[in-house]
Each structure stands twice: as C-alpha cells, then as structure tokens.
Amino acid sequence: MSERPGGVTSELSRDLKLFHVTLMGLGMMIGAGVFLGVGNTIRMAGPGAVLLTFALNGLVALFSAMSYAELSSAIPRAGGAYNFARLGFGRRASFIAGWMEWFASSVAGSVYALTLAIYLLRYLETLGLLGGLSSEHPLLVKGVAAITVLFFLYINFRGASETGKVGAFFTLGQMAILLFIGAAGIWVALKDPSRLQNFDPFLPEGWSKILLTMGFTYVAFEGFEVIAQAGDESIDPKRTIPKAMLYSVFFVTLTYVLVGFATVVAVKAGSPGVGETPVWAWIAQFGERGFGEAVSRLMPFADLLVTVTVICAATSALNATIYSATRASYALGRDGMLPPALARVSARRRTPYLALCATGVIVLLVALFLPTMDVASSASIMFLFLFFLVNLCAIRIRQEMGDELSYGYLMPLFPFFPIAAIITQVILAAGLRHVSHAAWIVAPSWILLGWLFYEFYGRSHARGTEEEITVVEEEKAPPGKGYRIMLSVANPDNVLPLMRNTYRICQAREARVELIHMIPVSDYVPLRDVPNFADEGREGIVEAMLYLTQIFPVGTTIRYCRNIARGLVSAVRQHRADMLIMGWHGRPRRRLFSFGRTIDPVIERSPSRVVVMKNCGDQRYRNVLVPVAGGGNSAFALEIAAILADPEEGQITAMTVDTGRRPFSLESFVGEQNKRLGPFARRVQCLTRSGQDVVETLLEESRQYDLIVIGCTREPLLRRMTGPSVPEQVAFRTETPAVIVKAPGALRSWVKRIF
Questions:
Q1: Keywords on this record (predicted)?
Q2: Is 15-461 assigned to CATH 1.20.1740.10?
C-alpha cells in the first residue's frame, strides 16, 4: 500500500489464486535454462550428470524455497527479498536486495525475449515466411525481441489477473509438452531397454564436474522467488504463497529429471549419424543444441514440438520476470528508497504503471544494445546473492521476531536448511567464475551503483515501517574509543538508584556511556504519533545525564519499536556496546518467561555482556554473595561483585552448594579469577554448603547479605522446556537486592552480532 499526497492510500488488487501463482513460478523457472543446460551438462560431465545435476539443484532450490516460503507467509507483501532484508538487516541491505532483484529479473527478461525471438525466427525460416532474410540477422532478432517485450509490458499493465491468466496459458502449454517428452522417453526405454546403455559410463568425467554443472544450470531453478512478489495481489497470501513456492520447485525438479532422462534415451546406439560414437558423446557435440537434436529422434514432428516448447517457455518466463522486476521497483518506490513516482498505481488497472515503464526501459535497453550472455551470468550471480541473503534473513528474523510475526508456514529442522543453502550457494557462485569472468565485474559494479544511489538519495528519503526500529531522537557521544556501556532507561522514577550502581561500573571500566530509552507503544498507535510518547524517556535520560555527563562521554538515543527487546538488541549491535545494563522489578506476569518478555530475549540474544539489577538502591554493599557453578557467567559475576562491593569494607563470599553429584573445586576456580578481581582478590572467601535443594540453600544463605550477584544459565532453550533454572529461581524469589549477569563467549558474541 502506498500513500498519495492527498492522504488517499492506493493498493494492488487481490485476485491471484494458488493455481495462478504456482504457474507464475513454474513459468519463471522453466525458461531457456533447461534447454541450454541439458546438452551442456552432458558435454561437461556425462549422461548420468544430467539426472544428478537437476535432482541436486532441485534439492538446493528447495532449501531456499523453504526460507522464502516461511518469510513470505509472515510478510506477504510485494517486494520479496527486499522486505525480508529490511526486517533482518536494515534499510541499506534491503535496498541492495531490491536493487539486485530489479536488475536481475529485468536482464533475465531480456534474455528470454531474445531466446523467443531466435527460435520464432528459425521456425518461420523453416516455413519460408522470412522472404529470404536470415533468421540470424541481428536487427531482425532484436526487433522481434523488442516487439515481444512491448507486448508483455502491455499484458502486465492490464493487471495481475491478466498477467496470471496469460502466464498460466503459456506455462500449461510448456509443462504439457515437457511432460509428454518425459513420458515418451520412459515409454521408449521400457519398449527398448537397450537404450538404458546410453547411461554407460554414468559419470565419465568423474564426480568433480557435478558442482560445475550445478552452478551452470542453477539458473534453470530461479523463479520461485517471483512468487514472493505476488503477496499484495494473492488471495489468502499466508497460505497461497508458501504452497505455491514448494509446489513449483517440486514440479520443476520432476520435469527436469524426466526431460534429462528422455534426452539420453531418445537416441538409439548405432543409428544413422551416430555410428560407433557413444550416444552421450554424440549429444554432447551439439552443446546447447543437444536437447533439440536428441529429442528430434524421439518422435515424429519433434522439431516443431521443441520449437513450440521453447517459445512457450521463453514467453512464460518473460512474463514472470517483467512482473517480478516491476514489483521489486514498486516496493522500493513505495518505501521512498527510489523516487515515489514508482509507487503510483493506475486507478483503473490497479497496476504500478511507472514502475512497469522503468522496468521496460531496462529490459529493452539490454535486449537491444548489450551483450546478453555475460550480463545474464551476472543476473545469475545476483540471484545467488539474493538467496544467500534471504536464508540469512530467515535465521535472523525467526530468532528475533518469531514471537511478533504470524507465520502461515514454518520450515522443519530449523536452522539446518537455510545453513545448508548458504553453504551451497557460496560454492555455486564461486563456480560461476569458470563460466563468465565478466559477470564478477558486472555484478559488483551494479551493486556499487546501487550503494551510491542509496547513500545520496534513498537513505534520506526512506520511510519507516511498522516493524522497523525508528530513531526518534539521538545525540551522539564525543568521538573516541574505549569500553562502551549502554544503559536502558525505562522509568524516570527508578533512574537514580540504577544510575548510582551504573556509575561504579562505568568508573571501573573508564567507559563511554550510551543512554537509551525504548518507547513502549501498542500496535494500535500510528507510527506518526510516536514522538508524542517520548517525554517520559526524555525526562529519564536528562536525570541520568546530570549524574554522568561531567565525568563520562555520554550519548543518548530515544527509539521506537513494537518489540522493546528487539529494539534493545538492535541498538547494542548498532552501537557495538560491550555491556548492556537494565533494571528489573521481580517475577514476570507470564509463566512462559523467566525474567519477563523484555529481559528474557535480551539475555538470550544480546551479543554484549548483560547486567540486570533488581531492587538495587543507593546503599553500600558490605557483604556480597556470589553463587558459583563455574564457567564464564560465574567469572563475570565475581567481576561485577568486586566493582559493586564497598571499596573500603566490602567482602565477597563465593559460594557453591555440594549436592554430591559432580565434583567442583571452588577454591581453584576463584583463584583463576584473581586478575578479574584485582585488589578485591584478598577479600574473597570461599563457602561450600551441603544440600540437595540448591535453590533453598542459596535463598537461606542470601538473607545474611546486602547483595547477591548471580550468573545466568548457559542453556536458555533447554531451560524453557524443563522449567526455570537455579539462577532464575533464586533471582526472582530472593528478597535481597540482586544482580543477574550474562557474559557470552567471544565466538558466541561474534555470531550474535551477525544474527
């Protein structure tokens, strides 16, 4: 949906059913790639490779399709990868994703237009209808390609239902013909089993060539991402989009394997023209024409059948790519990253006509003036880049926004499939350098151009979305390096008690401080009204600044996000904070959470150290209890205890409860922390209590102390399934002021900063 200057909203019409959307994906996937890929795969790796290549590529495509399906079921809007990247990694990444998708789909459309023109002219030449002109004349080929592009621009302008109906017609035609060819191949093999000897040797070039052929033919599986662009125009998109994606990948993989099988068994060994040459070698000599040459021997009128098939395939793919590219540019214009004119929707046709015109210009320019092979390879690399990014988004969005979004489909065994897809896509993209060196120049150049456009235009014009984290006010700290502490200021009434303890930590670390307030606004409050809720946060930040500004470099930020925990974790990543300090006031309202719906996700996801203070007022902590079980969190708890304890009279008691289940040397562990404890190391005593109920033993002991500092468990997910852990039970049951700490390891912190 987009807004016009008068405040009237415009949106696309919803009239695409599962049938139309599935066929749209099939039409995009079954383009020229399969017809060029069959012969070249046999030439590069042998007859068996054509079956393995398409089957394995289908499996890899299914991995990414599951990520697309999951994300599209939760975010069913036009834009596809652009929307996913915006939620997962922010505006810059989303713009680059949409920019690449727009270019890749447009160039793919140019390739399909030229393919259609070439095969159509060859067929007309065989009928003698060209009047002596050569079907390979460049001007003739490009002229027919241009007319074809203009025709499908008009079809897309007519509206989504017209696009879906026309695409469905051509897709059904090509699917029927390809399945007929596959069935004919099976029938011939059953009638004459000797043709199965054409697969011997199965892989004459060895297994090493399979990855290369997979990279070369992966373009034949691009297309399911087009379905994500139909979110604004599909009926019941949360169910329609995921089903259409998975169905299209399955049917295309099955079709490709059948066609590959039929190609190999179509030629009888020793037949005229083949002689003593192995059948697979005879097919291989024709390269990209190998499919047509082989199938022409499978049945009568096969030449005509192949020509009609290629024309149908190129037509449906061209239709789908124009649709996809137009919706990608529409989404960029809708959110202000491209000129907003691209988001204008025709009042009569309900189609984004200016985005369609801009896409048409790119398709026509490439088809008329640019060499298509290297640019098409660049489009393939960009699609792989897109799939790589979408799989990253699937992981990050599920982890950070899983409780906010309503999914219509959830992939099984998460996150195995997106990780497997990421690894495979890196390998396939690297392998494409053997196909086109120029592609590795064109693709980065287009990305660089997009980055420059974003920095000089899109960044300042982008509109916020409901799911985004919006900065309401921000004042950066003076430039400099040092330990970075972020303090979450939620309630002005509790700022001073929290500040006095924060002051001690900042002083010990010689830290730079970032004060942050997240505005908690319900889902029913419009984004434009958010600044009206900033006064409370502004008051708390001013109180904190009065306490800290004279001593420490201080920055401030007031942000809005529907989910406070996600906003805090995002701020920690963005500011690269080393420590996050928060306040807490006791038991959560819901049993699902251990500390609360805000603190639980922050503790689990934050890449920085986390310090949560419960009822820690302005007092001197002379006796501090630190329950110790070993590990990084216990070590960090001792470190914080040494900072908060009274510097003159403070004493720290490191305590463990001996249940007799596992040996633990408390004295050795504490001795290893002398560097963390500094001068306080001499004032730490060790205490071991025996007991079977660890929680009750710790609670009883804590009554004698001014403060208890306890580290979180290292197993948050397992903990939720089996109930609250010991640290959590102690933290919310004790009446003693408490500090809960979490210190992720170096590798874990690095991974969390990415995901």
A1: Membrane, Transmembrane, Transmembrane helix
A2: yes
Please, which pLDDT band fits residue 408 given cuts at 50, 70 and 90? Answer: confident
Given the DSSP bridges, would you call strands 609-614 and 623-627 parallel, antiparallel or unpaired? unpaired
For 82-111, what is the mean pLDDT? 84
Pairwise CA distance, residues 561 & 510, whole Å? 30
Pairwise CA distance, residues 494 & 539, whole Å:
12
Distances (CA, A) of 403 to 503, 563, 565, 601: 34, 9, 11, 10
pTM for this one? 0.68
Which residues lie closer than 8 Å to 85 by C-beta, 6 or more apart? 93, 94, 96, 97, 98, 389, 390, 393
Residues, the chain, total?
Answer: 755
Q: Which residue has the higher pLDDT, 733 or 118?
A: 733
- The tokens for 242 are 């995921």
740: closest CA among 556, 606, 603?
Answer: 603
Between CA 323 and CA 329 the distance in angstroms is: 10
State the SS3 of 425-477.
HHHHHHHHHHCCCCHHHHHHHHHHHHHHHHHHHHHHHCCCCCCCCEEEEEECC
Token code pair at residue 551: 């001593």
Q: Which CATH architecture has domain 477-616?
A: 3-Layer(aba) Sandwich (3.40)
Q: How confident is the model at residue 63, as a pLDDT?
A: 92
Region at 412 (left for phi over 0; alpha for psi -120 to 50; beta for the rest):
beta
How is the chain split into domains, by residue range? 15-461, 477-616, 620-736
Round to whole Å and give the CA distance between 699 and 726.
Answer: 11
pLDDT (tens digit, 9 = 90+) per residue, 305-324? 877 787 777 777 787 788 87
CATH class of 620-736: alpha beta
Q: What residues contact 51, with CB distance under 8 A and at least 6 apart? A: 257, 260, 261
How far apart (Å, rounded) are the C-alpha atoms in residues 54 and 684? Answer: 66
| Encoded amino acid at 60, one letter | V
Give the β-pairing of 707-711 and 623-627: parallel
Which residues lie across from 484 on neighbouring strands? 512
Question: Residue 752 in contact with residue 604, Cβ under 8 Å?
Answer: no
pLDDT digits (tens, 9 = 90+) for 626-637: 999 888 899 999
Nearest to 294 by CA among 270, 268, 275, 267: 267
| Span 489-521, pLDDT tens digits | 876 666 777 777 888 898 888 888 888 888 766
Number of Cβ within 10 Å of residue 50's Cβ equals 31
Amino acid at 728: E
Report whether 295 contacts 306 (CB < 8 A). yes
Strand 738-742 vs strand 707-711: parallel, antiparallel, or unpaired?
parallel
Looking at the DSSP bridge assignments, the partners of residue 378 are: none
Grouping H, G, I as helix, E, B as strand and the rest as coil, residue 736 is coil
Quick one: DSSP state of residue 712? P
Identical fold, 477-616 and 620-736: yes
The highest-confidence range among 346-350, 456-460, 596-600, 610-614, by mean pLDDT, is: 610-614
Residue pair 612/595 in contact by the 8 Å Cβ criterion:
yes
Q: Judge whether 279 and 264 are in contact, CB under 8 Å.
A: yes
Which residues, at least 6 apart from 52, have a Cβ–Cβ distance to it below 8 Å? 203, 210
User: What string of DSSP letters covers 168-185?
Assistant: HHHHHHHHHHHHHHHHHH
SS3 string, 299-358, reads CCCHHHHHHHHHHHHHHHHHHHHHHHHHHHHHHHHHCCCCCHHHHCCCCCCCCCHHHHHH
Long-range contacts of 281-289 (CB under 8 A, 24+ apart): 283/39, 283/42, 283/43, 283/47, 284/39, 284/42, 284/43, 285/43, 286/39, 287/39, 287/40, 287/43, 288/35, 288/36, 288/39, 288/40, 289/39
